[in-house]
Write a structure and sequence with these properties.
There is one protein chain. By secondary structure, the chain is mainly alpha-helical. The protein is built from 22 helices and five strands. It has a three-stranded antiparallel beta sheet. The protein has a two-stranded antiparallel ribbon with strand order 1-2. A hairpin with a 5-residue loop joins strand 3 and strand 4. Helix 12 runs parallel beside helix 15 and helix 18 runs antiparallel to helix 19. The longest helix has 24 residues. The chain is flat.
Length: 436
């Protein structure tokens, strides 16, 4: 039975497969000779086998990507375009399944219809068909066939006028009936999650974000919790796209709506609102907008609630807003917030992961404000006792500048106590390391 894939390392399998190819070639040639009218399809198959045998002779590898008559291969495992065993089955808008490389080429060639049904595609999202992929994998195992790995790093995003039209129709439905609003919001959430190019489409339309958020304006009453969750999650998905960060944050409605969603809605709504603020704050200009809009207090309130689902995103948003605004703007207030934040275990972990230690050490070294130094050393005390790995950076700072020792001598009484605690831990770790 003919195999699929590429054989390079197993000579016995290659020899056996070569014999099968030759038998198949003999059968096809006999059919061509016996038929009154030569079938083009039969001739093409014979030529493919000849090329495969030629490549094996000169390259030492046998490529069975060519399609051979194999009645054992289920029809549903063949790509309707290539007629070959699918390596990476994906579903298009019509529900039909194709092998990813072939349907992508079809789309990039300018086609906007489903090859099998000829229906116009409402969008070009390619959704992995995991069920068919698993069935193909099982079938290959049963027949001793090594399924080639899917093609990786292929640009699958194809923007079409149909996509633009589909986005516009969804946004228009936001001002329609309640059921239309919910359906449109749910689809927007899914599309912006699965399709990066769909997120980018929002940047082409200046009215897209206002239309999306119109139902969550301050004047809106009794907003459906599921609708709110879908819309806020869509904003989160949009904010992932770098070109959208400025667009979203500078929309007059966006930040106020996100802040309001921190206070009410499902826990997923509130968590995703915090995550959106964190993502948007990657731009320094956005940090100022978010900070001046009063986001910190509702973020801290949500953190105080201690919901496990929200802790990571909330802590990340607070930390990012605080630690990155260190150019003379609200430094005292932000350090005080970080000091308060350090009483939360999850928040402390996030601070360590997001690079708080070097920043806090720099402030202690350069600041002339004793209160700021006190808050910094208090945070560092908590961080280094939580994560011993951070002691290395503190020891390097101490060796280079003597920052902690100086604070232990000249700081406030609380700062001295915290600094001495860190120094004692540094000495204890050094002693243990030396003894070992």
């Amino acid at each position: 039975m003919a195999k699929f894939g590429v054989l390079e390392t197993d000579p016995s399998m290659a020899a056996k497969a070569t014999e099968e190819l030759k038998k198949e070639l003999q059968r096809l040639v006999s059919r061509i000779v016996d038929e009154d009218e030569s079938c083009a399809d039969t001739t093409d198959k014979a030529l493919k086998i000849l090329f495969a045998l030629r490549d094996f002779k000169f390259k030492g590898s046998l490529d069975f990507g060519v399609e051979m008559e194999n009645p054992a291969l289920p029809q549903e495992f063949r790509c309707p375009i290539s007629k070959q065993l699918m390596r990476d089955p994906v579903v298009v808008a019509t529900g039909q399944t194709y092998d990813r490389p072939f349907i992508q080429k079809w789309l990039k060639d300018g086609h906007r219809t489903c090859p099998r049904t000829q229906q116009v595609l409402s969008h070009t999202i390619l959704t992995p068909n995991n069920l068919v992929r698993e069935m193909i994998s099982e079938w290959c195992k049963e027949h001793g066939i090594e399924l080639p790995k899917p093609v990786e790093d292929v640009d699958e995003e194809v923007i079409t006028d149909a996509d633009r039209g589909h986005l516009n129709s969804l946004l228009e439905r936001m001002s329609s009936s309640a059921s239309d609003q919910k359906e449109a919001a749910r689809e927007l959430r899914l599309l912006t999650k699965r399709m990066p190019s769909f997120r980018a489409l929002f940047g082409e339309c200046t009215d897209a974000v206002p239309q999306l958020l119109s139902l969550l304006s301050p004047d809106a009453v009794d907003v459906d919790p599921e609708l709110q969750e879908d819309l806020i999650t869509t904003v989160l998905n949009l904010s992932i796209h770098d070109n959208n960060k400025k667009l979203v944050a500078e929309d007059p409605m966006a930040i106020p709506v996100l802040i309001e969603s921190l206070k009410s809605g499902t826990i997923e709504t509130r968590t995703n609102a915090a995550a959106a603020l964190f993502t948007l704050s990657a731009l320094d200009s956005n940090k100022l907008i978010i900070g001046k809009s009063g986001a910190l207090k509702p973020l801290l309130d949500l953190l105080e609630e201690g919901h496990p689902l929200a802790m990571k995103d909330v802590a990340s948003a607070i930390f990012n807003l605080c630690i990155k605004i260190m150019d003379g703007i609200l430094v005292d207030e932000l350090l005080a917030i970080l000091a308060m934040l350090s009483s939360h275990q999850r928040a402390v972990e996030e601070m360590g992961e997001l690079g708080a230690v070097p920043c806090l050490l720099r402030i202690i070294r350069e600041s002339k404000c004793e209160r700021n130094k006190e808050n910094c050393i208090a945070i560092l005390h908590t961080v280094c006792f939580n994560d011993r790995a951070k002691l290395r950076a503190i020891r390097e700072e101490e060796n280079d500048y003597g920052t902690i020792s100086r604070l232990a001598q000249t700081g406030t009484s609380r700062a001295k106590r915290k600094a001495n605690g860190i120094l004692e831990r540094l000495n204890r770790v050094a002693l243990i390391t030396h003894t070992a």
